[in-house]
Design a protein that fits this description.
With about 140 residues, the protein is of the alpha/beta class. The protein is built from three helices and five strands, in the order αβββαβαβ. Keywords: Cell membrane, Membrane, Plasmid, Protein transport, Transmembrane, Transmembrane helix, Transport.
Length: about 140
Amino acid sequence: MRLNRSTHRSSTVNLVPMMDVLMTVLTFFVILSMSLSAPQIADIQLPRNVPGKADPSEKITPLMLGLDAQGQIIQGNQVMESAELVKLVQTYFQKQSNGKVLLVADRTLSYGKVTQVLQGLRRLGATEVSLAVQPE
């Protein structure tokens, strides 16, 4: 009596489609992380970084204001007038009495204009103003 032996093919897993999917997912996350790396305010060129120390224990969300090359004050992507800026800063400090302002000023802007804005912010109650710089 002869048994009918069937030939068994070993099953294989094709890895190429799985690798394609993984590369697509990896590419997606790389692009996503690059777009979320730093908040942007319009088209402003920051000055270079000078090493310093920051206090990591503070968790205050700063009010981000931008100063473009023409000296216009920007909040988000919107140019602000002086009256709007006064209202914005006063509202911010009413909500956060120990708040901070982050000033993102274009490096081509004159020092005098930055000083004028800093003095105006001080008059509105901003005692702590940080200037953003571009890391080297």
